Amino acid sequence: MAERVSLVRHAIGDVLDDTAVPETSAVDLLLALDAMCSVIIQCSDESRPLTCQCTVGDTHARLRVTGHLVGDVELRRRGYAWRLLDSAVDGLTVASHDDGSVQLSGHKAHRSAD
Prior knowledge:
With 114 residues, the chain is of the alpha+beta class. It is globular, with a radius of gyration of 14 Å. Helix content is 36%, strand content 27%. A four-stranded antiparallel sheet has the order 1-2-4-3, covered by helices on one side. The chain is built from three helices and four strands. A hairpin with a 3-residue loop joins β1 (51-56) and β2 (60-68). This is Anti-sigma factor.
């Protein structure tokens, strides 16, 4: 699963390049994407999918990464990846569901690069 994160980063980077998101905000979003994936992968079942979404609006971009926890393993909310994530995006939320899935999401405000 971890080796595919670079492909996702590249794809979302291409999406951000085609929008009005300024480069500094795009870099923050890509760092946040890496951190979200890292945090979820550390406690996920590798046989389950990791879903990454990036939605770009006129004033902000939103990231959402969903994975599936292994058994009773808890999401680690400390360490380098968590601190990076916490500083790179706003409105960081964690949602756990009865099916064992966990979702991290956050957004980054931006102004048009025009």
